[in-house]
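Bumping with the actual sequence this time:
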Amino acid sequence: MIYNYCGHSGVQLPVLSLGLWHNFGSVDDFNVATQMILRAFDAGICHFDLANNYGPVPGSAETNFGRILKNNLASHRDEMFISNKAGHDMWPGVYGTGSSRKNLMASCDQSLRRCGLDYFDVFYSHRYDGVTPVEETMQALIDLVRQGKALYVGISKYPADKQQLAYDILREAHVPCLISQYRHSMFDRKAQQANFQIAADNGSGIICFSPLAQGLLTGKYDNGIPANSRAAKASGFLQQSQVTPERIEAARKLGQIAKRRSQSMAQMALAWVLSDERVTSCIIGTSSVAQLENNLQTLENLHFSTEELHEIDEIISDPKLSF
C-alpha cells in the first residue's frame, strides 16, 4: 500500500480507502462484508469510511462494521483510521437530519454505540444543509474533539464559500480541518475546479468518493444496462436516464486507453483520480473480494504520460458527460 500525509498533519492515509456506503448493510451478505474488510486491512487499507445513514437500513453498516471489528480486529483498533459522518436523513422527526448541533451531537453518540467504539478518528459534517449557520455546525465538531469523541474533524461536499468559512472557524479554535471529502471522477470534475485548491491552500487533505461514477467508469455499461446493475434498479444513485449514449461512448474510448496501459477501466479511473497531487486518498466501494482485488491492482500503474493525460482530457472535456 502507498500512504500520503493528510494535508498539514502527521496523519498518513492509504491512497485507497474502503467506503461502506453500499454492500455492508443489513440487506447484504454479512460474510462477504467480513471478507472484504479483512482483505482490505491485510492489504494495508487501514482507513474505513462510514456515515450514520449507510445501509440500508440506515445505521446497519455501522452495526455490521462494529460486529466485524469486535470479532476479528479488536486488537488492531490503533492500527485503523475510522471515519464517520452525520447530516443526511437518519431518523424521523425534525432533529434526525441536517447540520444542527442537535443532530450532530446525537448522531455521533448513536454512531459510536453502533460501532462499539470510544471515539472516531475523524468525524465529518456530511453536508452544508443550506440553513444551519456554519458557525453552529463547526462548533459542534470542535466540541466533539474536546469531548474526546473524535480526534479530528472534516467537512464533506461544502460549497466553496462555506468551505472557506468552515476552515477559518476551525483554525481559530485550534481544531483545524484535517480532511475534506468531495465527489470526483472523470465524469464529475466540479469539485476539482471549485474546491480542491481551497482545501490545499488551507492545509486540508482531500478524499474523493464515487471515483467510478457509480459504475459508469468500469465498462459495465458499454453494451447496455445489465440486469443486476445499479442502473437497472428502480431506485438508487444511478438512474437509467444517466446512462447516456455520450457517457457510454466516452467510457468505451477511455477503455481503449486503459487496455493500452494493461489496466482495467476501473483501475485507470482510480489512478486518474489519484494523479492529482492534491488528493490524499480515494474511497473505493466494492461488492466482492474479487472486485477489491481488482481495485488494489491499480497501485501497480499510477503513472500517466503527458500524452495519455492529454488524450483522456480530450475525451472527458465534453460537458454532456458531467453529472
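The C-alpha cells above came from a reply further down the thread. DSSP finds eleven helices and ten strands in the chain.
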